Amino acid sequence: MKKIFLLFFLLTSFINSQTLINTVNLPSGTFWSSGYGLVYNNSKYWISSSSTTGRGVIYAVDEDGLLVDTVLINYPSMKESQGLAYDGTIFWYVERKTARCDLFKVDNNGNVLDSITSTQLFGGSWYFGGAAWDGTGLWISVYYPDASVALYKINTSTKQVVDTINFLTFAPGQLQPQGITVKGDTLFFVNDGFQGVDKIYAVSLITKDSLFTFNPPEQPGLRQNPRGLSWDGNHFWLLAEPVGASSGRQLFKYDLGGSGSPGITILTLTVNFGNVMIDSTLTQNISVFNYGTADLVLSASTVSNAVFTIQSAFPITVLPGQIANIPISFTPTANINYNDSILIYHNDPIVNYSKVILTGSGVFTAPFLTSNPASINFGTKRINSTSYIELTLNNAGSNSLQIDSVKTNSTIFYFEQLTTPLNINPLSSSTFRVWFNPTALNNYTDSISIYSNASNGSLIYIPVSGSAINVDPALGNIFWQAQIPDNPATSVQDYTTRSMKKIQDVNGDGVKDLAVATENYWTLIFNGNSSGSGDILWKYSTYFGSINTGSVDYEQGLQIVSDLNSDNHQDVVIGTGGGNEFVYALNGKTGELLWEFGNASTTDDGDIMGLDVKRDFNNDGVPDVLAAASGNESTGSGRFSVYLLNGVNGNEIWRINQQSQQKLKYMVTSTDFGGAAGSRVGSTNEVIGFNSTGSLTWTFPTTGTPWTVREISDVGNTSGSDVVVGTTTGSVYCLSGDNGDQIWFTSIGNVFIEDLKVVPDVNQSGYPDILVSGINQNIFMLEGSTGFVIWSNSTGGNILGKDVLGDLNADGIPEVGSTSLNDVAHVYNGVNGNIIFNYAFGSGSTSNAAEHIVDLDDVDGNYSNEFAACSRDGRVILFSGGIDVVPVEMITFSAFVQEGNVNLSWITATETNNSGFEIQRSLSPTPSPKEGALDYWEKIGFEKGNGTTTERSYYFFVDESPLKGKIYYRLKQIDYDGTFEYSNEIEVEVGSPLTYALEQNYPNPFNPITTIRFATPVSGNVKLTIFNSLGESVETLQNGFLEAGFHKVSWDASKYSSGVYYYRLESNSFNSVKKMIVLK
Prior knowledge:
By secondary structure, the protein is an all-beta fold. It is 2% helix and 52% strand. The protein has three helices and 87 strands. The strands form 21 sheets. Strands 74, 75, 76, 77, 78, 79 and 80 form a seven-stranded antiparallel beta sheet that branches. A five-stranded mixed beta sheet has the order 22-29-28-24-26, with no helix packed on it. A hairpin with a 2-residue loop joins strand 86 (1059-1067) and strand 87 (1070-1078). The longest helix has 13 residues, at 2-14. The radius of gyration is 43 Å and the shape is elongated.
């Protein structure tokens, strides 16, 4: 009966009697933040550590946490510690080895006197979490293996287990016992919530039953990673993480005979009142929970902004285990967002106050208009550039806001993505772009006038300003620089640009823009005519979730297609790899999805390696899409196919399916005969050729994987285009497009050729040439008809990208560029390969590697093409192409009827990359898009261009089978890369002329003979006279009767000097004069 009474007395005396009386900060450093063992001796609190910096080290602190002593164990191979005990004379150091824990007996000088291994004690590899001396033996806590979790007493002399406390009988599931300490006949241990919950247990060494438990200072349910325990004769000590932290260590001092400790948990950390009408009040509650063992007293509160008020009187007492709800009110006085915090003071021993965040917004009853920003300042921009700032109109009221109109006084500032009238719902907003296009060197100021039903004014002005400057057009000067934006869908931001190409003007400023595809899943368009910083016109993300996610991974995975959706604008097609192996067609104007091709339920279909969008295979007037879909040669999964997709809707037209043969697919190109693609299975490498219906027509074996395949115009004297191939071992092949026969072969060394470019004829051989490099420092220009090296150069870094640029030095030949792993973009003279410009994105680090370089046509209006380059860290820079220019200019385009034929003639002042002119005819100036319709633009011929030249070029074409009546003609000028532009349209009447007409002489200028054509609708006297620049008649070519019809007269100016002359036609009431030039 006495034993039962004593246990009851001990139990009741400890209930709710643990009071936390102090928290002690420890020194900073890895040793301390990983503190593990804790033991008291002689006014010192000794700590061991589980960090590598704590191997064989025991530090002592006083009760204020100041370092006062050190023991360095003289044992070189000693590992980290997971516990510490003291038997009154020596330490017992718990060492954590890789697969077990051992015990070492260490004197105060650090000498190892003895050791006990877990194998000796238990016959295996066991893990200990703490140790304590009870006066006769050493207790240890074992937390692994799980089946043997318990407290064990060791006789340190015999090295045998002499006692066990199986605490799982009263603490089920608590499988992580850590620190131990002994107070008389009571043993304390703490469990880590890694398995179970954080809790301290008091156990009778007499009965081995639980006497009581209490929680560490952290609120129940949250882990504090408790470690060492100690009893100093008066107080109980715990080593654990600071409250609210996830790392570090503090010491916590308890009075086990006290009245308990309160513990505060703010259940409402943030009070968001939302939108509240001005001068009205909304009340919410702050909930406070006392998880401690004593009364929690909330003594006072403070809040700085008077719009927030506490409705309760202080002090407020919260009993243990109870929740108090404290009302707080919000009464906004203005239309602003309020952000404040309330401090609640209390008697929690860990912290003396707690903070609650308060937010809310005051709103109007009637519609109320505000803007962000309140004013717009574009700063200084390049003259004739275009830049935008987004303007957001906010309705801060609780009724609908009707925007009737938005205006500016000048066209220098204009709007995009804005349609009025516009309705903005209560507490909502609408955003649009305000553009600035300075056309003169001025400082511009204006106001955006907004007419609405806003209660704060039916007419509100937003100031807008900006100024224009001239930017130095010298070669390589930076016009703008942009940064690839973060993609909010992913936490991993890889800004590497995988492909970059120019696209038809997107924002209507007359300048081509820049399409970019990146590793962080963006396809986006930069405004080519930006200034200073690059504006993004639209962006499209291919991150759709953890499974259906992929990016453009290859240069040929981004293509610009002439028009897919009949909006007379180029569109964008991309092919992705990774977890998303799709083909996407995007609206070039808006970035909206037109169609997609792929399977979202799998991540193993094989990357889209290459795309081609140059040809209309099914003759519906819309280009179709060739796509090379690879596979996984390790697993055998994937498509291993070349697809032809309908450009209108993405439907499969045909498929070359080599899945059963496991033939991987690489880049693909279309040709006049169909197309070709690289292919491999195992060590068998080949290029496959196919016709326009998807049937294989030829194969050609290659040395190395045929990674890149490009179309080149006929260099093998066949009836159509040919194919150039680059392999992973540096081989370059030129193959006949119709049958795959080898035209020529060369090697640039044992290097990986990722891509090559077909270049306009740089050596005037009459054939296009080839720019090629591998993943090394060397770049080559090859003669397209033979493969011979025209020139080569070295960049100093592995080449990552290359492309054809504009003619930057006015020699009539385009330059070329490359980008390298050593951060440098280079521009080379197209004729001889000399470097004429370079730019370093960094100092050589691969993180700043230069990735791509492309031509962007003329941006600043001086006829010199600009160029853009990008780096691995996401920078995109537009560089000036300089001032040495070759303007591309068509001087005249005219037509006349003679003997039933329509004679077309045109003159170009200069040409750049001109493949030739397609002559088109129609019966309507606005023809039908449907092929075969009477008024369809019909191709009736082709005239080969002169490539790149600074000389005038004269062209003549005869339509020998013209339609009758009024006929319209135009020219489609086509570049070597497939891009094209249309000329103006001209009209003629076939049959008898309806009116008098005097045509421009041809040729003009001339030496010494030219032809003058004219038309007379009726018979009569006609006079044609030549005059010099002084107005003096020098020769009469016709003076007499002519029948009605079309006529021509030649003039031989051999006896006249160079200069300007005039010719005049007179007949009846008709009189017309034109100018011509004799140039000798």
